[in-house]
């Protein structure tokens, strides 16, 4: 225990709500290559606002949610963000989050090696069976051909 912990008390481990965790998966996917294109950013926000769990969030709340996730990436990196997302997502939402993230990485028309590696990491950390992940990737590839 450090000096500050003795005075201020131990720091609570970081946790994400299901809303934050779902968004974290998409953010990790689109930011993996170090660049968030306009198409990726727009698709990310539009996709979130279309979902029931985000309908009641105003712009301030959505901004706070995204800032929290960005701060985690900056302080701890993508692996920590993905780990926290996995812990915060209910099991029945993991494939959906992976599908949305896959759709987002296809948004700019190019899935580079870094994005592929992050998506593989997401798939593995969330325990999504490889066969299911491949189906999702195939469908999103077809969806985004145009």
Please describe what this structure looks like:
The structure is a single chain. By secondary structure, this protein is mostly helical. It has a single domain, classed as Orthogonal Bundle (TerB-like). It has eight helices and no strands. The protein has helices spanning 3-8, 18-31, 38-50, 59-76, 78-88, 94-105, 113-125, 130-143. Helix 2 runs antiparallel to helix 5, helix 2 packs parallel to helix 6 (94-105) and helix 6 (94-105) packs antiparallel against helix 7. The N and C termini lie far apart (56 Å).
Give the tags.
146 residues; mainly alpha; TerB-like; 69% helix
In short:
The chain has 146 residues and is mostly helical. Helices cover 69% and strands 0% of the residues.
């Amino acid at each position: 225990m450090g000096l500050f912990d003795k005075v201020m008390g131990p720091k609570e481990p970081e946790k994400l709500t299901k809303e934050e965790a779902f968004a974290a998966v998409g953010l990790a996917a689109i930011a993996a290559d170090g660049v968030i294109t306009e198409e990726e950013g727009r698709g990310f926000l539009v996709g979130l606002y279309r979902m029931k769990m985000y309908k009641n969030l105003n712009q301030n709340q959505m901004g706070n949610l995204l800032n929290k996730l960005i701060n985690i990436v900056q302080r701890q990196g993508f692996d920590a963000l993905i780990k926290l997302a996995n812990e915060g997502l209910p099991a029945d939402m993991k494939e959906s989050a992976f599908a949305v993230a896959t759709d987002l990485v296809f948004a700019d028309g190019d899935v580079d090696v870094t994005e592929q590696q992050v998506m593989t990491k997401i798939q593995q950390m969330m325990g999504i069976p490889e066969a299911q992940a491949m189906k999702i990737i195939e469908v999103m590839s077809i969806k985004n051909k145009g």
